[in-house]
Amino acid sequence: MDSVSSTSSKVPANATFVLSNISHLDPTKLEHGNYHVWRFLFLPILLSHNLLGFVNGTKPCPPKFLQDSKGKLSTSVNPTYTEWIIQDQNLLTWINSTLSEGVLPYIVGLQSSKAIWDDLEKRYASLTSVHESDLLIHILDGLPVAYWPFKTTINTRSMSDPVTLDQLHALLICEELALEDTPAVSKPSTASTASRNPTIRGNQRRGSFNNKGRGRGRSNFRGSHNNSNQQNQ
């Protein structure tokens, strides 16, 4: 542990994650009947952060110690090993934070993200048999508020051109990237809101009409009163 902490300052910034982000990226808690939904939402996270290799075995843990000039292991800790351990443990924490209380006891003692990923797949993949259309509904319903316009678009499109899981997967990645690049939108002004709100526009028109009507009424009344006085004279 001392060697890890002593070299942690050399780890690049992209090696660390923000734990609070995971609740927005994957709001689904893994339970006994929704493994495929949970996995479907988690895979884009792994891909976008270049972490898929940690769970599929294509990015194994490097040797802990460096080799000396003679090719023998030295007592110097390999910086690449330190970086890998930090990334793997952060990913492990991310995975654990998306597991329900009923699932957590089964992964106690597993010490790498791959060990947890493999155990969850063996334990739950065969238990879930969901039709693709039902799976799409579960995935869309589990998206956070920021994705609601995206959800509406997919539901509307599916009426005439059903979306497959592979297509939804690609569209979700694009939507995630678009949301990251979208600046915060300021609150619309009153005038702008009124122009888009038919109720407000209607009230404004009625108010303007009533004002004009009251103005004409007073003018006619004064005109009639003057004409009456002239006739009496």
UniProtKB/TrEMBL annotation:
Protein name according to UniProt: Uncharacterized protein
Organism: Persea americana
